[in-house]
Amino acid sequence: MVALEPRDGVIGSSSLEILSEGLRLAASDTAVSAIIIGTLPEASIRTIESYDVQTIYLCDEPEKDYSPENYRDFLLQAYALELPSVILLPGTDVGNDMAPRIAAHLDAGLATDCISIDMSDGALKAERPIFAGKIIQKVRIATNPAIATLKRNFFKGPNFTSRLEGKAKKPMVKRLQAAKETSTVRSTLREIVRSKRKSSDVTGASIIVSGGRGMKGPENYAILEELAAALSGAVGASRAAVDAGWRPHSDQIGQTGKTVSPELYVACGISGAIQHKVGMINSKCIVAINHDPNAPIFKFADYGIVGDLFQIIPALTEEVRKVKGALG
Amino acid sequence: MKIAVCIRQVPDTASSPKISEDGTKLDLSKLQFTINPFDEYALEEALRIKDADKETHLVVVSVGDETIIPSITKALALGVDEAIHLKPRNASRYFDPLSIASALADELRLHSFDLILFGKKGVDNDNAQTGTMVAQLLGIPCVPNCTSYKLSIPHITAFREVEGGTEIYEVSLPVIITQEKGDNELRYPSLKDLISARRKKVTSKLIELRENTIEVIGFDYPPIRDPGRIVGTGVEAIPELVRLLREDAKVL
Known about the structure:
The structure holds two protein chains of two kinds.
Chain A: E1 2-4, H1 13-25, E2 33-36, H2 42-49, E3 55-60, H3 68-82, E4 86-90, H4 93-106, E5 109-114, E6 116-120, E7 123-130, E8 135-141, E9 146-150, E10 172-177, E11 187-194, E12 207-211, H5 221-231, E13 234-237, H6 239-243, E14 264-268, H7 274-280, E15 285-290, E16 303-306, H8 309-327
Parallel strand pairs in A: 1-2, 2-3, 3-10, 4-9, 5-9, 12-13, 12-14, 14-15, 15-16
Antiparallel strand pairs in A: 6-7, 7-8
Helix pairs in contact in A: 3-4, 5-8
Chain B: E1 2-6, E2 9-11, E3 18-19, E4 26-27, E5 33-35, H1 37-52, E6 57-63, H2 69-78, E7 82-88, H3 97-108, E8 115-119, H4 130-138, E9 142-152, E10 155-162, E11 165-172, E12 175-179, H5 191-197, E13 201-207, E14 215-220, E15 229-233, H6 238-247
Parallel strand pairs in B: 1-6, 1-8, 6-7, 7-13, 8-12, 9-12
Antiparallel strand pairs in B: 2-5, 3-4, 9-10, 10-11
């Protein structure tokens, strides 16, 4: 059973990666079902129908009075109907919230933030980063069910095509109702305060421009925001900048912040200490800009420029705009 | 009000454990251990509640052998009233999150805490499961990854950081909160605190943990990145950098 989380009413590529993994793991005689954790309009269900999914579970849950305990109950309802031997969830806020709840309830082994999964002799095997990514832990879960959350923005392989050649049967859509009596043992989501900031969230951003102690103050992040805008990316920060109060914790990248794996990571005025490194080392391409040629970051950045970032960044923004303009 | 903070130790964040020759074990012997940073944030939040209301009874609960005693002592020195130390019968065994959660739930069930706090995850194993699992086992609500919360007994308003914003939850106590980093660096103990810590009650119990649901079969190092290069100095290096990003790395 695969849990898919819609974004803005659409099943996106990261959800489809999870679905593909589920299909890949299922033996040819194992049914795959999908449960949608979120609201999905009818039209978007069609995205899933081209995959070899037997049943799609939707929750008839009103948007208001959301409670994580309700989603947990929907997942458990779907589980009871399907009895899958493996449950896969996305490593998103909702997926990470749900997984331990259902694992504890079902007495199931749960591997979180997996970077690879496979079946072996009926058991689920997974690899996951530990010690902030310095070590890869290999685990085997023989419980039935076995549960795994898949690391966000990590599975970037080609879309897996349907297992069946030719016409696959259209999946059955089942709607699950909330329990009639609502227990008082629930937390209720009162409101969501959306981030009003210009730059987008670092989570899932394919380009990140990040600033550290070398930025010398919050007002100087304006030049990073300009560069990020030119690159259509997000702005991140090291712990030093967050602790100094220059940037919010939600921007923090590193061991006690977020782990990101963008296509491009531009580290500005960041020394490259291990606690920051572990948060961004999986970036496809790392660029470092620092006045200190001995900064540790130059040892693992793909490209580096030594110099004054207050001169370099605006000039880089100019060049990027020029090049992008020329490309049309 | 009665609050429990569940803490444990992890190797220092700058440390890098070594993998054994056969790839099946991690050598943690030469590492320094400290209280898990996220547990420290939880502890600081609890101490602030006690600052505001001296009648608050604060208990720290921890699963581990005698090596965790310094962390328990530190917590007591910071103002925690008492500690419960759960000692596993077979301490050398690997304990998965569910086995720890079950042991903690069994102990917590014997008390009536209004608030039970965890760090959002351990920075060694990065599982982020235990706190939420304990809530499930106890049948109480859980709000994970909270940056802060406001008490208005018998309710609590919890602020949870999510992608793109903050969620605000209203919950009735008792509740489990797993703590995210916020404005909550742990304070330092004073000499007076360190002395009084020795007089505080520590209950030690020998416990049997349930069997694991996860088997750890090995370890590996992540693939090593190819070393990069310094393209140049100052603004003169920019055209070449941009060219490399476009043509070689193909990220522009």
